[in-house]
Amino acid sequence: MDQIILMSDPLVAAISVRDRGEPLVDVRADGSLPVDPRQAEWAAAYTFLRVGVLDRLIRAQAALPDGLRLLFVEGYRPPALQRRYFEEYAAELRAAHPDWDADRVHVAASRYVSPPEIAPHSAGAAVDVTLVDPTGRELDLGTPMNASPEESAGACYTAAENITPQARANRAILSTALTEAGLVNYPTEWWHWSYGDRYWALLTNTEAALYGSHELP
Q1: Which of 129-150 are b and which e, b meaning 16 or more Cβ less than 10 Å from the residue's Cβ?
Q2: Alpha helices per DSSP H over the chain
Q3: How many angstroms from the chain centroid is the CA of residue 82?
């Protein structure tokens, strides 16, 4: 597996932000993407994204093989909720590894939840997506969405080898469409894609991020 740059890497935090001021829009209002309700109980604004991200998702969906669609699961995440997710996962890691120091816990937690200060979801720049067939059934992509590295024995990593050939093929379909539309993947989570955030800027050699952390009214 290629070397992975984690969200906790100082290279990510060093990227400046020149926010374009694009509004967050509700994916449901456009109607182009099927939306899954599984995150509704956690954040009312989970269906929101920056306009530029939504445009690229629609473009990616149009490039999928006939009959397949993107299933939108989560977009915007309020900063307070992002912090809660990060702290809860970090607490799990501390309990499981009492010998780890604070830095090691922070880095390990960033495999699965972005540090709150740079989180792409809180900028409205990231989306969690999967694939569905014409009947709306989710395709096999190797693990359930949001499976942690511990739960999945690392199979949540995009390039994981401990998945079936069919799941690998489905991940390739998803990756090709989203990459060609301009999004980048966080390689510890096959479902997490972003555009315009600091992580995207680093991977695409862009001088500054287009979107920073955002609070909805």
Answers
A1: bbbbeeeeeebbbbbebbbbbe
A2: 10-13, 27-30, 51-62, 79-96, 102-109, 149-152, 165-180, 198-203
A3: 12
The answer to whether the beta carbons of residues 38 and 73 sit under 8 Å apart is yes
Q: 209: which 2 tokens?
A: 């991020």
Nearest to 196 by CA among 127, 129, 131: 127
Helix 79-96 to helix 102-109 angle (10° resolution) is: 120
pLDDT digits (tens, 9 = 90+) for 109-125: 888 888 989 999 999 99
Helix-helix angle 165-180:51-62, to 10 degrees: 130
Tokens at 186, concatenated: 């966080």
- The answer to whether the predicted template modeling score (pTM) of the entire model surpasses 0.85 is yes
Give the C-alpha separation, 95 to 113, whole Å.
Answer: 17
Rounded distance between C-alpha atoms, residue 208 and residue 128, angstroms = 23
What phi and psi values does residue 122 have, to the nearest 5 degrees? Answer: -75, -10
What pLDDT does residue 1 have?
Answer: 46
Residue 25 has pLDDT above 50, yes or no: yes
Q: How far is CA 135 from CA 66, 68, 172, in A?
A: 13, 9, 21
Helices marked H in 9-78: 10-13, 27-30, 51-62
Which residue bears the tokens 């374009």?
Answer: 20
Model confidence at 44: pLDDT above 90: no
